[in-house]
Specification:
mainly alpha, 121 residues
């Protein structure tokens, strides 16, 4: 593996870890402390986008890592939903579905981005 490829993989994983930490914090803050309008379904869109953003860097810079990144991200989404009631939030199956769909939709997008801009020609 070349130095640049190794560096790119590391960058992808570090970015995904940082996004994961931010997501964890945001999803464990009590809902009463989060400002914003109450729009029906908006929380599902937010969950989708957060988990899409969680795996996109790792999958873009290290496409073969999908074998463990995707299951790990899905488990992360499930664990967050299970522990949210201990932090003054509600556990919702719909949020878990949105998390999972975000992860799965990032897979083809990351592959396309990798092929277009990162794959050696």
């Amino acid at each position: 593996m070349s130095v640049n490829r190794y560096r790119n993989r590391r960058i992808g994983f570090v970015l995904s870890i940082l996004v994961g930490l931010v997501i964890t914090i945001l999803l464990l803050v009590p809902a009463s402390e989060i400002p914003g309008p109450e729009v029906e379904g908006l929380d599902k869109v937010i969950h989708f986008v957060m988990f899409f953003a969680l795996v996109l860097p790792a999958l873009t810079f290290a496409p073969s890592s999908w074998v463990w990144v995707v299951p790990l991200a899905i488990v992360h989404g499930a664990v967050i939903e299970v522990i949210q009631p201990y932090f003054g939030r509600g556990m919702e199956f719909g949020d878990f579905v949105a998390n999972t769909l975000g992860v799965l939709c990032a897979l083809p997008v990351s592959r396309a981005v990798h092929r277009r801009w990162l794959q050696p020609r």
